Amino acid sequence: MGLTLSVSELKKSYGGTVVLDGCSYRFEGGGVYAIMGPNGSGKSTFLRLCALIEKPDSGKADFIEEGVVIEHGLALMRRITLLLPSVGVFNTTVYENIAYGLKLRKVNKAEIEHRVLNAAEMVGLKDKLRRRAVTLSSGETQRMGLARALVISPSVLFLDEPTAAVDAKNSKAIEEIIQNIRHTLKATIILSTHDAGLAERAADTILTLRDGRATAL
Length: 217
Ligand SMILES: Nc1ncnc2c1ncn2[C@@H]1O[C@H](COP(=O)(O)OP(=O)(O)OP(=O)(O)O)[C@@H](O)[C@H]1O
Ligand SMILES: [Mg+2]
Prior knowledge:
Elements: E1 4-14, E2 17-27, E3 32-36, H1 43-50, E4 58-65, E5 68-69, H2 74-77, E6 80-83, H3 94-104, H4 109-123, H5 138-150, E7 156-160, H6 168-185, E8 188-192, H7 196-202, E9 205-210, E10 213-216
Parallel strand pairs: 3-8, 3-9, 6-7, 7-8
Antiparallel strand pairs: 1-2, 1-4, 4-5, 9-10
Helix pairs in contact: 3-4, 3-5, 4-5, 5-6
The chain binds adenosine-5'-triphosphate and magnesium ion (MG).
């Protein structure tokens, strides 16, 4: 089951520019949330702070399970994943790219194979596992990124513009994968997007980020 994420009074500035200015919101476990807002409004920054990749100047992001706040650390990091708009590709096979997070976590070989096949099936790349990942199209690469994220069965999945730079067909496929992840993993999903249609269809709640704060629509 997805973790609840309670963000309170997050502040972040770069140089003299204030990006987040006391941003607070509670994301309920298992919910799907879409964050919208103009270019430069701080969506990616917000996701990086929530995914614990970068520290806020002040404020906090608490992950909560059964009413208890989980201490920040490796065990928590392993339950969270952030998928960036341009997926980093390792110069090896699609299989190895998807398996990466499981190898880091020292999962055994048989289990890795099982999970990679499942994830590849979910994103429609089962017949491309032996291909070199650099030969995939942008849409396929983005789906490989999703498979890499979901193979570790994250409790919280952050997706930064998951459908940027993909065509309508891949965009639709990605939308279906998100729904699928929601139903199978029951993960909490927080995505940023400029696509109002995707936000409407995929998310229970749409937030806008403006003047450094998040508000539900
Ligand atoms: N590491 C950084 N150093 C300096 N400025 C940064 C850094 N990261 C983000 N910014 C600035 O913070 C502001 C918010 O950027 P951010 O990428 O979070 O916006 P965004 O809402 O994701 O925009 P987009 O829709 O274009 O992806 C921008 O002005 C950006 O230049
Ligand atoms: Mg961004």
